[in-house]
Design a protein that fits this description.
Blueprint: E1 3-7, H1 14-18, E2 35-40, E3 46-50, H2 63-75, E4 84-86, H3 89-92, E5 106-108, H4 109-117, H5 122-132, H6 138-151, H7 174-187, E6 223-231, E7 235-244, E8 247-256, H8 259-275, E9 277-283, E10 290-295, E11 301-305, E12 310-315, E13 322-330, E14 332-333, E15 341-349, E16 355-361, H9 370-387
Parallel strand pairs: 10-14
Antiparallel strand pairs: 1-13, 2-3, 2-8, 4-5, 6-7, 7-8, 9-12, 10-11, 11-16, 13-15, 15-16
Helix pairs in contact: 2-5, 4-5, 5-6
Length: 393
């Protein structure tokens, strides 16, 4: 029967890691947030993870999913920026942060997008939702969002509305919010600059709601998005991103007690992420990380490789304490095609969350001929006999 094999050391890759001059772990960031997740966008290195997979009330941070679906519709030609949408009584009924829309309005999609991003307009979300909903209702749009989120890998997200209005089954995890943010940044670079806009005075009708609530945008630390959130149940939260040089960090915080705490915690996390870590290439593409056993192949083992250089962020001070495992279900069954994903590398520098990387077969392995199969079966039978009655077939 197949068994799960675990290698607690890098074996073949161990020398590569030692040569990388790795560092003592930086002290983990002690956040006051109820849940948090920090990831380096370029390398995928997870720098901080606290209750990251727990579904929690996301408040207005879930508006990012409404925006993503709207961006997809614009890209696909189902919606246009200059198209003007009607405002229903349902959309107008929302309180909280709004654009102060009413049923006499017809608002351009571009203004609605800025109304969501900059002003956090609950009414603007509902207008977009009803326009894109399969059944014309916000509830139908929420069901569509849930399905789309699952397709994108956001397995801890369910939506009851388009804007984060408190509802029992409206939940997202911090990891899901970070994944969604990275999709927005990478998939829709033409729209992402909107998230850095600090002011939007829609039609002059809401002078008390013209400022972006993101506290980091004006600090000169590279912050350029994405979305704040606050309800009584969720506390104060922020999905943020900052870019310094060639590095971009995405972070999510939730459950903070005040807006001031949110601002201070967010700035501290950005500074920590950029100052305490540096990029290191641990493994070059094509280098054998380990050897996996092969069943009935023309060779007994196959090398496991990464499809690209493995570059991670590591603490800037220290030594070489890295925990690593190569995990696969084996022995692998021949034939095996080179490039097939057959294993996973789990890397966890001391004091940091683990990062998972797929491993591929480094070469083709053909099925063995008659002699190979006979030798394999004979070897197995001999092994069982040597084990005695307890190992008998």
């Amino acid at each position: 029967m197949p068994t799960v094999r675990k290698f607690t050391h890098f074996r073949a890759a161990c020398a590569v890691l030692v040569m990388a001059s790795l560092a003592l772990p930086a002290a983990a960031f002690e956040t006051a947030a109820k849940a948090a997740y920090v990831v380096d966008s370029g390398t995928g290195t997870v720098l901080l993870s606290k209750n990251a997979d727990q579904p929690l009330p996301p408040a207005s941070m879930s508006k990012l999913m409404t925006l993503y679906v709207a961006f997809e519709a614009i890209r696909d030609g189902r919606l246009s920026l200059d198209e003007k949408l009607p405002v229903s009584r349902h959309a107008m009924s929302y309180g909280g942060s709004t654009m102060f829309l009413d049923t006499t309005d017809r608002v351009s999609v571009e203004d609605l997008l800025r109304g969501i991003i900059v002003l956090s307009g609950n009414d603007a979300c509902a207008v977009i939702a009803e326009a894109l909903s399969p059944d014309g209702t916000e509830a139908g749009f929420a069901r569509f969002m849930t399905t789309r989120a699952q397709q994108m890998g956001m397995t801890n997200s369910t939506f009851a509305n388009s804007n984060g209005w408190p509802a029992e089954n409206h939940r997202m995890s911090m990891r899901d919010l970070a994944l969604l943010s990275r999709h927005i940044i990478n998939d829709f670079p033409q729209f992402y600059p909107m998230f850095a806009e600090t002011e939007f005075a829609f039609d002059g009708r809401a002078p008390q709601n013209t400022q972006n609530r993101n506290p980091l945008l004006s600090l000169g630390i590279g912050a350029d998005g994405l979305k704040t959130g606050h309800t009584q149940a969720a506390g104060y939260g922020l999905v943020g991103s900052a870019k310094q040089g060639d590095r971009r960090v995405v972070f999510v915080l939730s459950g903070l007690p005040t807006a001031q705490t949110r601002a201070e915690e967010s700035e501290a996390i950005v500074n920590w992420a950029f100052r305490q870590f540096a990029e290191n290439t641990l493994i070059t593409a094509g280098t054998d990380v380990a050897q996996a056993e092969v069943w009935m192949g023309d060779v007994p083992t196959v090398g496991l490789v990464t499809d690209a250089d493995l570059t991670m962020l590591l603490p800037v001070l220290g030594s070489d304490r890295i925990k690593a495992e190569v995990i696969y279900t084996g022995p692998l069954q021949a034939p095996i095609a080179a490039g097939t994903k057959v294993a996973e590398l789990v890397v966890a520098p001391e004091g940091m969350p683990e990062t998972r990387v797929p491993l591929l077969a480094g070469a083709d392995v053909a099925r063995g001929g008659f002699v190979t199969r006979l030798q394999t079966v004979s070897s197995l039978l001999l092994k069982r006999l040597q084990q005695g009655p307890e190992g008998a077939l």
